[in-house]
């Protein structure tokens, strides 16, 4: 197995209501799952190939809950990536060189029936995890933004977090509100739905822990 490791800021928005039942082993809000996920890599490697500073985006769609499979996936990789870096990022995002079920990328790939050919584009991405703010813009393909959830009466920012022990994606995620519109092979549209912002640190075996388990 080729050793790899990625430290990144993550911004994901899906079609579920705030709280996303999938985070709690429940069925998705509307019975099916659609999502856009962006990753701004701070530090990373795949074997001897460095991945520092690169970005990647995944557009995902399942006709039912993720665990029932039959999904579609479309990966968009930073156009600045070299041929070796492109291969490395695609390998990680499709669950290759990964212990079974160790990362969300492995799980999503295992539950995907149709992998659309990847695109290599300029990715405009900004993620502020603690502020619960971010955007992902890819000309002609993706326009996504996230912001804090606001109290419907006072307008004040609301700051919920999800803390998962023994997960396959993050340790703690800040929760916000997302708006997304995509085109291309997987067109999606949703507004004021679940969004998560997290610092992720993953390798072949899953989460690299930053704290002791409770």
Question: Which key terms come to mind for this protein?
Answer:
14-stranded mixed beta sheet; two-stranded antiparallel ribbon; mainly beta; 2 helices; 214 residues
Q: What is the overall silhouette?
A: globular
Mean pLDDT: 97
SS-based class: mainly beta
What about the largest sheet?
A: 14 strands, mixed
What is the domain total for the residues? Answer: 1
Number of strands: 16
Helical coverage, percent range: under 10%
Radius of gyration: 16 Å
**Ends apart, CA distance between termini:** 30 Å
Helix and strand sequence: EEEEEHHEEEEEEEEEEE
Proportion of residues in extended strands: over 45%
> How many separate helices?
2
Uncertain segments of ≥5 residues (pLDDT<50)? none
Kindly describe this structure:
42% of the residues are buried. Strand 2 (33-46) and strand 3 (49-50) form a beta hairpin. By secondary structure, the protein is mainly beta. The strands form two sheets. Strands 1, 2, 3, 4, 5, 6, 7, 8, 9, 10, 13, 14, 15 and 16 form a 14-stranded mixed β-sheet that branches. It has helices at residues 83-93, 104-110; strands at residues 4-14, 33-46, 49-50, 55-62, 71-78, 112-115, 119-121, 124-128, 133-138, 142-147, 149-150, 157-158, 161-163, 172-182, 188-203, 206-207. The chain is globular and about 55 Å long. Helix content is 8%, strand content 48%. It has one domain. The two termini are 30 Å apart.
């Amino acid at each position: 197995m080729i050793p790899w490791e990625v430290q990144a800021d993550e911004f994901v928005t899906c079609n579920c209501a705030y709280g996303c039942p999938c985070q709690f082993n429940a069925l998705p809000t509307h019975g099916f799952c659609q999502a856009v996920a962006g990753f701004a890599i701070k530090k990373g490697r795949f074997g001897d190939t460095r991945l520092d500073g690169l970005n990647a985006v995944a557009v995902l769609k399942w006709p039912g809950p993720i665990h029932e499979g039959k999904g579609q996936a479309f990966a968009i990789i930073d156009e600045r990536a070299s041929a070796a870096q492109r291969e490395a990022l695609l390998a990680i995002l499709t669950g290759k060189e990964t212990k079974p079920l160790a990362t969300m990328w492995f799980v999503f790939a295992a539950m995907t029936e149709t992998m659309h050919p990847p695109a290599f584009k300029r990715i405009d991405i900004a993620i502020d995890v603690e502020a619960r703010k971010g955007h992902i813009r890819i000309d002609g393909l993706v326009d996504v933004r996230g912001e804090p959830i606001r109290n419907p009466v006072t307008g004040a920012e609301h700051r919920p977090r999800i803390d998962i022990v023994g997960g396959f994606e993050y340790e703690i995620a800040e929760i916000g509100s997302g708006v997304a519109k995509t085109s291309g092979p997987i067109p999606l549209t949703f507004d004021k739905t679940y969004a998560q912002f997290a610092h992720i640190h993953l390798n072949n075996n899953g989460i690299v822990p930053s704290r002791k388990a409770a």
